Structures are given as C-alpha cells and as structure tokens.
C-alpha cells in the first residue's frame, strides 16, 4: 500500500474543484496546489495562500486542499499509532508509576516546606528589621551628605566674605571660593535640599564677581593715575643715571689718555674697553634697580582677576587703549610751556612710560605683545621727531640747541639699553649738526669780536701763579717749561687767552654734540668745525681788525703780530685737545698736522706792522728837506734823518725782541731796511732836488754806512741762525741805495754800461733811474767837481765818464 504524500489530493476533491470552476483562470492551478502542499509539508506559514484565496473570492479550493491534507495527516497518525501501540502502552504505565512517585514527592516537599516556614519566620523578621535599618541609614547618610554640602558651601561663602572684607588683596581668593561654590551648584547630581540657600548662593555668586570687577577696575584706574606720575620720576632717574654713566665713561677715558701713547692702539683710538663695559654694566644695574622701584602689583592683580573672570582679552584691550590715551596726553606736556623749559619733562615722561612698558612686556605674562609696544614706540618717536624738528628749525641760540640735543641723546642712550630702536632720534640730531655749529660759530664770532674790541693790545701782566696757569699753561702757549718769576709780563695781550678760551669752549661743545648726538666720525667732524672756527671766525675777525686799522699804533700792531705767533702754538693745542676729547692718539694727530690756519691774519698783521713802520720811516725821511744837496763839505755824522731812523729802529728792536719771534723780527727789519733803501733812492729822484754835488753823495754814503752798521749789530740777535747769512740778508736790503751811491762815487761811472760789471756791481739799479739821477749830478758847475780832480785844461776823467754814461743812457731810452 502506497503512503500518501501531503500534497496529494483525492480525486473527488480535484474533480469538485474543476467542476465548480469552469474557468481555469480562477481555479488554482496544479503548481499552486503543489506549492501549498510543499508549504504544509515544510510547516511554513500558510497565511499568504489563505489571503490569496480569499482575495480571489474563491477559498473553497483552498479549504478542500486543506481538508485533504488533514485527512492525509490523520491517516498517517493512525498508521504511526498502529506501528507504535506497544510503546505507547509501556509509556502510559511508566507515566502512571511516575505519577505515584510525584505524589509521594509532593507530600515530602509539603512537609519540608512547612518545616522551612517554621524555621525561616525569625529570619524574615530579622531581614525586615535589617531592610528598615538600612533604609534609615541611607536616609541619614543622604541627610549628612546634604548637610556637609551645605556646610561646605556656607564655609566657602564665609571665606569669600572674609576675603572681600580684607580688601582687593583678597579678591582672587574670594573669586576662587565663589568659583568653587559655582562648580558645586553646577555639577551636583542632586539639587541642594535647601531651596532658599540655593537661591541665595545663585544670587550671591554673580554679585561677588561683579563686585570684584568693580573693585579691581577702580584699583587699576588709580594705578594708571599713579604710574603716570611715577613714570616722570622714573624717566628722570633713568636719564640722570645715563648722564652719570656717561660722566664715568668720560672720566675713565681721561684716565686712560696718558696710557694711549704707551700702549698699542689702533689708529682710530680704540683702546681697552673693559672699564667702559663695567661702567655700562653698572648703569644697566642701576636702571634695573630703578625699574624695580615702581610697583606693578595692582596691574598684575587686575590682570589675574580679569583672567579669573574669563575677561582676560577684554582687559588687554582696555589696558592698551588706556596706555595709548596716556601717551597721547603725555605729548601735550609741551603745549602749555616753551619747549626749552618743558623738554626735560617731555623726554622724562616718555622715557618713564616705555621703561614701564618694557617691564610689563617682560613680566606681564602676555598682557602686552612686542608689536603693541613697538607701535607705541613708533608713535612716540614720530612725535618726538616732529617736535624736535619744529623747535630746532626756530632756535637761534646754540646753547639752547645743545641743551635739548644733549638731553635727547641721553634719552636715546637710556632707551637703547631697554632695546628700543633710537635711530630716528639720532638722525634728527645729526641732521641739525650744521645748524648747531653755525649758531655756535655765530656766538663765537661775537665773542671774538668783543674780545678784540676790548683789548688795548698791551702785554698781559700776570701777578700770581694761578693766573699764569689759567692763561698760559691751560692752553700750552708757554715758550718755556720753566715757571717764570712773578709778576710776569707775557709776550701777548689778553686777547690770546680770551680767544683760546672761546675756541676751547667751542671744541668741547662740538665734541659734546658730536659724541652724543652728531653721529659719524666724531674726530673728523670736530676737526672740520675746528678748522671753520679758526678760519671763518678767528682768522677773519683778526684780519678784519687789521684791515680796518682801527687807529692801531706801531706798538699795538707789533703786539698783534706777536699774538699771531702765540696763536700758532695755541692752534696746536686746539688740535691736541680735540683729539684727546675724541679719544684719538696724539701720534695720529702729529702725523696729520696741517698748516697754520691763521696765516692770512698773521700775514695781514705783519703787513700792517710793516706798513706802519714804513710810514714812521717815511715820517723821519721827510726830514730830508734839511739835507744840503749842494754842501761845501760832507756832513761829519751823516744826515739828521738817518740818525732819527736808526734811533727809532734800535728802540723798536729792543721792544720787539721781547715779544716778536726772531723770524718775524728778522723779516720786519729786512723789510724796513729795504724800504729805507728805496726812500734813499727816491731822495735823488725827488723833483725838489734839482741838483746835488759829491758832498751830498758822501753824506748819503755816511747814512748808508750807519744803516749797514745797524744791520750788522742786529744780526747778533739771531743766535739760532747763521749770523753771517743774517748780516748779508740785512745788508742786501740796502743794496739798491748802496749800488747807487757806489756808482755816483765811482771814478768811472760809464762802467755801468758794461753788462758784466753791471750784473756784478749794479744789478739792482734801473737804468732809467740812473739816467735821471746822473742828469742831476751832471748839472753841477765845474767847481762842484773839483774834488774829483784838479782844474786844468784837460777835462776831468770822471766828468767825461759821466757824460758818456748820460749820453749812452739817453740813447738807450
């Protein structure tokens, strides 16, 4: 017998399905029935088949299939039961025996349960008591934790209140306590059990923060006011210490100057700088102590409080804006008063301002940045540059310009030590270097003119040694290292030390300006301006005095010439003094020594002296009207004018050799003798002299011998020179007159026509002058030539020679 499958359907069911649904489109197909059977066999969900059948409106085929499947299942069950009937019987017997065992077990369990209940009742009571106690303990712990929390919050509030009562010094601690309260309230897992306390704390926390912000802002405002006043004092102290450091460096440099010539130094004068570095380090330490003298605690406190309040960036902006406003108001210091009076306050205020900013930048923990400080400094430098340029352009006094320049240079030195760039400030000072020296030259020109106008050009009398030291040794114009006896009469007038003081002051002012604000090579610039004052001021002023004459006498003109020789030594002192102040070795100065810068005024002074001496000689020569040109006998002691001139020259020489240098005296004497020679020749050429005889020539010869004797006597004064050459030079000054007299006294005057003889004996004579003078000598009557020969029929040879000379000279002319 074949076993039925779940998918098989009885034929009756299939036929009924086919009869009931003639349309194959509406009846389920064999494929659908196969799928249904497979689903039933697999135990799958039949819901989709049911929905589809009902959706089609014909569930009967489905129901029929399901009934057929059920019948098949029943048949299978029946077959299974038949196959396992004995097994079922045995299983039922086992179940029955098991049921009896279960009943016995149930009775045992019931007895055990009753025993357990009777024994567990006390434990349950204890457990209930434990649970109640544990609940109470939890409630107590929660209450204690809440109490401790409240106590802690109240303690923090009390601590904050105590810190607030302590003043601004406790603001930070108060804010820390308030922040702890705020964190507790914000981070608590449960709300505070006391709503009133919570509301109170929530209202107090922002109030405390607002109070702290107000108090610290008020303290910061007070600090801003106080630091402005302190900045001025701080700037003055810092600049004063820079001045002291500069003074110490100058003293060290002065101490090292004597060693400069004994140690190896470069040509630029740079020596051992250890002492200078030590001085600079001392100045830096002093400035550091000055910077530490002002209190930045309120600023730090304000910054810390604002950072605690999470307002750090806002405070930084607030601080920078207020400092900018303060700097702008500091610029207005010079608005109410003249810059000359307020420049120190102006520069000190700015210096103190940036000293404070430097310390805030270094210790403020990021309160300010380098670009912010640099921007403030650039604004301050721009203002200072514009103010100085404006005021410098209107200044007409060198001392005022030097005063401001010196203080500005000290400001630059002070700020350079704090790392601020000061190039623009130094450029402004260097830019007005020429103007400063022009004003200084104008002031010195006025002082020199006043000194020259006040001088009577008499030898200066010094009664005490300090006067000698002050007027002579101080300028190195002594002629000997031996201290003279007092009272001492100097070879110069009071103008010389006065001018030396003026020039020395000029050098010191120039060095001060150049060293601290002029920039560049100090010595080269000072040497340049020294040359200007000597040439444009001293030389020009003396030359103007000499050219104008100003009614100077011979003695005064001689004193002026003597002064110029002393000034030559003074000029060497000026150069050395400038080099010493600039730190340049003296041997470098010796190598670069220049010509005497006052040579024009020196030459003019000598020319004036010669002009006056020649005028005085002319005055005596005008007494030649008393010369007897037709004398019967020659004058035994020479003519009167010659005696007067020689006496005057001897007197003049005795005075001049005490004050005039020997080379100057030598040039003067030679020039005067040459002038006397010219005037003697002019005596013969004078129109008032119509004729002269041999006796007159003999008298002139005697005069010349007197002058030549004077020249020989004067040569003994010049012991430092070859006396023979001096004597020859002085006699050479009289050569023209001597050659003329020799020619007139010669027995053969016509030898003048011989070129060889003329070049040897008469080379200084002009043939035109000889012709004129010979005509006057020829015009004398025959009796006038009796001295040259006896009268006789034969013509006098000298007269014949003279006639020949005159004739030949006429032909030549």
From TrEMBL:
It comes from the Eukaryota. InterPro entries: EXOC6/Sec15 (IPR007225), EXOC6/Sec15_C (IPR046361), EXOC6/Sec15_C_dom1 (IPR042045), EXOC6_Sec15_N (IPR048359), EXOC6PINT-1/Sec15/Tip20_C_dom2 (IPR042044). It is found in: Cytoplasm, Cytosol. Signal peptide: none annotated. Keywords: Cytoplasm, Exocytosis, Transport. Transmembrane segments: none annotated. Residues 66-239 form the Exocyst complex component EXOC6/Sec15 N-terminal domain. Residues 425-776 form the Exocyst complex subunit EXOC6/Sec15 C-terminal domain. GO terms for cellular component: cytosol; exocyst; membrane. Residues 10-28 have a biased composition (Low complexity). Its main location: cytoplasm. PANTHER family: EXOCYST COMPLEX COMPONENT SEC15B (PTHR12702:SF1), SEC15 (PTHR12702). This is Exocyst complex component. It comes from Dichanthelium oligosanthes. The lineage of its organism: Eukaryota, Viridiplantae, Streptophyta, Embryophyta, Tracheophyta.
């Amino acid at each position: 017998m074949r076993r039925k499958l779940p998918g098989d359907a009885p034929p009756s069911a299939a036929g009924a399905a086919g009869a009931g649904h003639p349309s194959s489109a509406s009846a389920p197909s064999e494929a659908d029935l196969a799928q249904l059977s497979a689903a039933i066999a697999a135990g799958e969900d039949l819901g989709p088949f049911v929905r589809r059948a009902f959706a089609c409106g014909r569930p009967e085929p489905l129901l029929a299939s399901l009934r057929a499947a059920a019948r098949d299942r029943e048949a299978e069950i029946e077959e299974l039961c038949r196959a396992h009937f004995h097994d079922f019987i045995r299983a039922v017997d086992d179940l029955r025996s098991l049921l009896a065992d279960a009943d016995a077990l149930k009775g045992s369990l019931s007895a055990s349960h009753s025993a357990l209940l009777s024994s567990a009742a006390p434990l349950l009571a204890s457990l209930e008591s434990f649970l109640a106690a544990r609940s109470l303990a939890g409630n107590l712990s929660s209450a204690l934790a809440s109490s401790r929390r409240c106590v802690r919050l109240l303690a923090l509030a009390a601590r904050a209140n105590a810190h607030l009562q302590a003043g601004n010094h406790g603001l930070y601690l108060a804010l820390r306590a308030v922040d702890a309260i705020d964190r507790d309230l914000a981070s608590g897992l449960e709300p505070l059990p006391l709503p009133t306390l919570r509301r109170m704390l929530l209202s107090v926390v922002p109030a405390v923060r607002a109070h702290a912000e107000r108090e610290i802002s008020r303290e910061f405002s007070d600090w801003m006011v106080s630091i402005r006043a302190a900045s001025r004092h701080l700037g003055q102290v810092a600049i004063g210490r820079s001045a002291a450091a500069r003074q110490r460096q100058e003293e060290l440099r002065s101490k090292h100057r004597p060693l400069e010539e004994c140690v190896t130094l470069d040509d630029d004068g740079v020596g051992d700088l250890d002492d200078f570095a030590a001085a600079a380090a001392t100045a830096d330490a002093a400035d550091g102590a000055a910077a530490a003298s002002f209190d930045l605690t309120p600023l730090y406190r304000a910054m810390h409080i604002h950072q605690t309040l999470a307002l750090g960036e806002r405070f930084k902006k607030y601080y920078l804006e207020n400092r900018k406003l303060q700097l702008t108001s500091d610029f207005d210091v010079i608005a109410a008063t003249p810059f000359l009076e307020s420049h120190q306050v102006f520069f000190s205020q700015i210096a103190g301002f940036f000293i404070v900013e430097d310390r805030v930048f270094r210790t403020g923990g990021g309160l300010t940045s380098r670009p912010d400080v640099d921007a403030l400094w650039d604004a301050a430098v721009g203002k200072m540059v514009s103010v100085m340029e404006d005021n410098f352009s209107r200044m007409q006094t060198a001392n005022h310009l030097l005063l401001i320049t010196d203080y500005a240079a000290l400001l630059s030195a002070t700020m350079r030590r704090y790392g601020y760039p000061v190039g623009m400030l130094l450029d402004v000072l260097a830019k007005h270097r020429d103007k400063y020296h022009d004003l200084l030259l104008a002031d010195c020109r006025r002082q020199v003119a006043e000194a020259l106008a006040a001088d009577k050009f008499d030898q200066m009398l010094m009664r005490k040694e300090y006067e000698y030291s002050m007027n002579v040794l101080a300028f190195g114009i002594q002629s000997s290292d031996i201290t003279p006896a007092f009272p001492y009469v100097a070879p110069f007038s009071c103008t010389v030390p006065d001018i030396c003081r003026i020039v020395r002051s000029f050098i010191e002012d120039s060095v001060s300006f150049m060293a601290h604000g002029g920039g560049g090579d100090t010595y080269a610039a000072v040497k340049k301006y020294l040359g200007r004052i000597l040439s444009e001021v001293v030389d020009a002023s003396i030359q103007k005095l000499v050219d104008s004459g100003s009614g100077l006498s011979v003695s005064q003109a001689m004193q002026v010439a003597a002064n110029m020789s002393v000034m030559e030594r003074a000029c060497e002192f000026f150069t050395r003094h400038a080099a010493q102040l600039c730190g340049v070795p003296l041997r470098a100065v010796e190598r670069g020594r220049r010509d005497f810068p006052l040579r024009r005024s020196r030459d003019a002074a000598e020319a004036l002296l010669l002009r006056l001496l020649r005028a005085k000689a002319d005055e005596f020569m005008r007494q030649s009207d008393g010369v007897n040109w037709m004398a019967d006998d020659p004058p035994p002691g020479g003519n009167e004018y010659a005696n007067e001139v020689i006496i005057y020259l001897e007197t003049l020489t005795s005075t001049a050799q005490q004050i005039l240098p020997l080379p100057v005296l030598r040039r003067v004497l030679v020039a005067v003798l040459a002038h006397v020679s010219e005037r003697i020749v002019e005596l013969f050429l004078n129109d008032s002299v119509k004729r002269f005889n041999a006796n007159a020539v003999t008298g002139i010869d005697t005069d010349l011998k007197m002058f030549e004797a004077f020249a020989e006597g004067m040569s003994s004064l010049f012991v430092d020179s070859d006396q023979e050459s001096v004597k020859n030079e002085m006699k050479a000054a009289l050569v023209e007159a001597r050659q003329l007299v020799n020619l007139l006294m010669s027995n053969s005057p016509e030898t003048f026509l011989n070129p060889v003889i003329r070049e040897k004996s008469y080379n200084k004579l002009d043939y035109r002058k000889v012709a004129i003078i010979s005509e006057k000598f020829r015009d004398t009557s025959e009796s006038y030539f009796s001295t040259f020969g006896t009268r006789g029929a034969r013509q006098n040879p000298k007269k014949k020679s003279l006639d020949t000379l005159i004739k030949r000279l006429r032909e030549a002319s």
